[in-house]
């Protein structure tokens, strides 16, 4: 079999527009995520330029600054991380890994993707009309209400998020149906690769969380346009209701983003340690319990809203408990390497970067889980540092790890490894120089979402902006490498990474049978 | 560009000065941890943070060392054949139980701190802080109910020695050593009353009256900022609290009661009627 087979063969624009092939749709998602990530990264570059010194030198005013931070957050979450991890890698590899010929609903799959560009256009439009959505991605009313943000921007943002939500729910339904019904005869649930498990669990979480966001957004839309008062105290409503609904979606959302990252890291660590993942049942249960716990910790985003001792104590303890299943995963990855035969390839480098940086982000998460300490940390740059360690250095590292890992499988071509290593080390140093000093700024009391800061915050902000330059330069290197490798990369054989434990690398995945039925062995 | 460059150099030299003199209460450049602690709450928070940080550093170091050692000991060139073992129940049990014990060591002091913060002692003074776009209004219901606005000083009129973007025209004033109840609310959008030096933060929510408390231990001027995105001038809504000895505070109250208007229920309903 030639290495080019079983890849999407879309030769015309119309073929890309109307394709229902899961691999082609996966490629569309990945291309979309790269474009959206470039846009979101460009916005963050602009933000770091503004924050490199005190004063407001580049943004017009606070409102346009607020609109930029809102766009940065929403773009990175809804149009970069989720499409890459779930839509991109999920579509490409879930069917191949479980031996399905395609997704259960190929037409729906195509719809799910094409809603996203429409949604992104709507979101970018919200930046261009009126004053923009200057609320932060959390969209708290009354600031997001009609008095706080007159003009059509917030309505456009709400509709953009509705579209993105529909897209997510559609793809989640598709993944759950595919994974539960279309596995090859002899592949038991507890034999599925961990990446498939991660997509299944993330999809179930999406099905539970997204409708809650949709409800909150619909209520906000009604408050803004149809005389509603769900969140307006003057009409008997309460902004705290929105906070509860938003974070009931918002906290599971962060696990929706990180679980597929866990899945990818498991595949890569196993492959390049030359052995199946250590403690497979524990890994599955850890993901399931992270998902379950993810639904009962939302109020740790609301410790300073004004709630009593008992709820804050409960949400403190529940949030800390998440460290247990997360610890299981980190230790199991290390145990897989321990006694393995490790090859430090480019994807493995990114995976190890992920494990260490995610551990740093998890540790600051434990600090933030304490309601008592949150009185001085809530909404400061410490929080910004924390969630960028788990998302920018966590989820994004996993995306790059997966991209380098599956690049030969998706394109039949190889990338120059030395560029991948340069990309990794520049991005690693850049993102750490960018985000680590933010811990210091947060401890010193710097609020997030401010465009200008007291002069005492200058030092570390300047350093952070220097780190951003390096991180963005390394991303540029990645884009150039991508463009060159897609056209001129050396042709890659299927066994480019050596023997595989999962089926997406088989010569003929459509016909492949599971290798053995013992769960742990089949399940990488 | 030259103008900007000069301003930038100015900031850098100001930064050097900062590092030398150390403006105790305002944030200082190259500060790597909490600033001044002026209340027991803040001291307790710092203690809990340091306790968790120590544990966290140990965990990160452990993970990094295990990965580093695995890379040295088990790389393909030194260890060509991978082990086939995929289960070790006692080990898996161990790495599930160990984090539970570590979390227990964090949870106990954490809940103690939370209880200390939540258990509001009897007040000697109540002050109401009301968030507005984009200033704070402080009123003193125990002292006749006078109220005044606290607005950020524009950078050009900040007196020497006071920090840009933090200095205000009228500070909130509290007596040192007294338990002060602070009621926090908002007249428009959500704001957050954030005072790092006192370990104090609570949202200003429209339609709700939140309550917190503090006891400032050291006289001085302490700075904080609105800490919840609140629109156009969210960056320019500082909080300044001046703590002074009780006799000075009494004198300030006598003066303030004559200078600032009394805001009563009647005046508020008159405003609403308009």
Topology:
The complex is a heterodimer of chains A (524) and B (274).
Chain A: H1 13-18, H2 22-51, H3 62-98, H4 106-128, H5 153-181, H6 194-225, H7 239-273, H8 280-294, H9 309-321, H10 323-337, H11 346-368, H12 371-377, H13 381-411, H14 417-443, H15 458-488, H16 519-522
Helix pairs in contact in A: 2-3, 2-4, 2-15, 3-4, 3-5, 3-6, 3-7, 3-13, 4-5, 5-6, 6-7, 6-8, 7-8, 7-10, 7-11, 7-13, 8-10, 10-11, 11-13, 11-14, 13-14, 14-15
Chain B: H1 2-21, H2 40-73, H3 89-118, E1 125-132, E2 135-140, E3 146-150, E4 172-175, E5 180-186, E6 191-195, E7 200-204, E8 210-214, E9 220-225, E10 238-244, H4 246-259, H5 265-273
Parallel strand pairs in B: 1-5, 4-10
Antiparallel strand pairs in B: 1-2, 2-3, 5-8, 6-7, 9-10
Describe this structure in words.
- The complex is a heterodimer of chains A (524) and B (274).
- By secondary structure, chain A is an all-alpha fold.
- Chain A has a single domain (17-488), classed as Cytochrome C Oxidase, Chain A (Up-down Bundle), CATH 1.20.210.
- Chain A has helices spanning 13-18, 22-51, 62-98, 106-128, 153-181, 194-225, 239-273, 280-294, 309-321, 323-337, 346-368, 371-377, 381-411, 417-443, 458-488, 519-522.
- Chain B has 274 residues and is an alpha+beta fold.
- In chain B, the strands form 3 sheets. A 5-stranded mixed sheet of chain B has the order 3-2-1-5-8, with no helix packed on it. A 3-stranded mixed sheet of chain B has the order 4-10-9.
- In chain B, strand 1 and strand 2 (135-140) form a beta hairpin.
- Chain B starts with a helix and ends with a helix.
- At the A-B interface, helix 3, helix 7, helix 9, helix 10 and helix 11 of A face helix 1, helix 2, helix 3, strand 7 and strand 9 of B.
- Chain B: It comes from Mesorhizobium prunaredense.
